[in-house]
Design a protein that fits this description.
Blueprint: H1 4-20, E1 40-45, H2 50-67, E2 70-75, H3 81-91, E3 97-101, H4 103-111, H5 117-127, H6 134-139, E4 141-142, E5 145-146, E6 149-161, H7 162-168, H8 176-186, H9 203-214, H10 232-248, H11 256-264, E7 270-274, H12 278-281, H13 301-304, E8 306-309, E9 322-331, H14 337-347, H15 352-356, E10 364-365, H16 376-383, E11 385-386, E12 392-393, H17 400-408, E13 413-414, H18 423-432, H19 434-445, H20 449-467
Amino acid sequence: MKTRTSQRRAIASVAMAALAVTTLAACDSGDGEADTEGQAIVVQTTDTIPDRVAATEEIIANFTAETGIEVELVGVAEDQFNQVLTSGAAAGELPDVIGSIGLTQVRTLGANDLVDTQAVQEVLESLGEDTFSPRALELNRDGDDLLAIPGESWAQLLYYRTDLFEEAGLDAPETYDDILAAAEALHSSDMAGFVGATSPGDAFTQQTIEHVALGNGCEMVNEAGEVVFDSPECVGALDFYGNLIDNYSVPGAQDVDTVRANYFAGDAAMFIWSTFVLDEMAGLRDDALPTCDECADNPAFLAENTGVVPAILGPDGETPAQFGQITNWTITAGANADPAKQFVEYMMSDGYVDWLAIAPEGKVPVRFGTAENPTEYSDAWQTLPAGVDRKEPLENFYSEEVLEALQTGVDDLLLWGIPQGQGDLAGAALGELPIADAVANVANGGADPEAEAQQAAETLRSIQDSLQ
């Protein structure tokens, strides 16, 4: 009987093989504006939460009313993306537009010639390249080809208690040394200096160490595509994180919920989480309310006394870096290109603010404005109501400095494997999570960082071999 691990590899290998032998001819996008009224397209999204689907359908209804183009919206769960893509490509039934996909999925499409790169480029030219984050565009390029239009971003951040840091005279925790110094100074029997993910087999644990490790020059693979997670830079990142957890954190394995809960209870001075925590920290979601002593009288106390560090720098790194994700829109090979282009342009212009408003805390704009008004969308984003049970703009709780850091953080955004063309490996690694297991062994069990980095690297090489 196959193990769960071998089953995952087999599924991944079959999916990639099926894609590799599927050839679809891209339609000529043509020159000039075509008459598209009365035409229809299929748009696939991985954003399948019901209230977000309903909000997307409202935007689509406005698009149809304006253009006459009918749109069928199809939701596909993110963990089913490769399977649905494989079967659709084999049957010649790809959607015209695919949205809300991360960079790994974009690379999968690009590697198998399933993108109408001419149509995507024409959308960019229509919208204006200068209106986008250069980094967001760079991460979507494969050589000279643009594989997708970046829609928005979310990122991992290091959050810290500004009131405690100011009282102790501490610098913002921007480097490994800053973080360790602050954790040591603020750690006590009543307060952990830091809390972060350590659960094995958990994607959040890998995302956390990726955020920490990138700024130390730690990469999953090098430019030649060779696995290098056993490098001194990665060993150093594991050693740093293990020291931070072992000496200055709360006891026990920590996951996405307990990390947040410890900080919300006022039991930690620093934590790492994504931008999706911003509305919760402001007291706008009942099932994840801050519970610190001060929060009883002021539910937004933590939001008002929290700073953020987008990018971290380690001693072996050359520049600060942060982990995050850009979600994107692309037009598939064989699509009904003209109405598909009009749809993507609409979602990034007339419909863009409504799209960001679906979840402002996790949809930070990467198109900042237009040629006429370069900050139109970034200015509007700050005023958009965020939250679940109550809705208020993020600017009501967070300083201008914090909001600016959220929007400029994309400039330092990196992801393992993407710049090196190893998006398939990065995606498969999130299935088996050998790096998360290495973190857990070092942080929870005191294992040797070098030995754990070597073991994780060997597993990654095995995964890479199976994909090839």
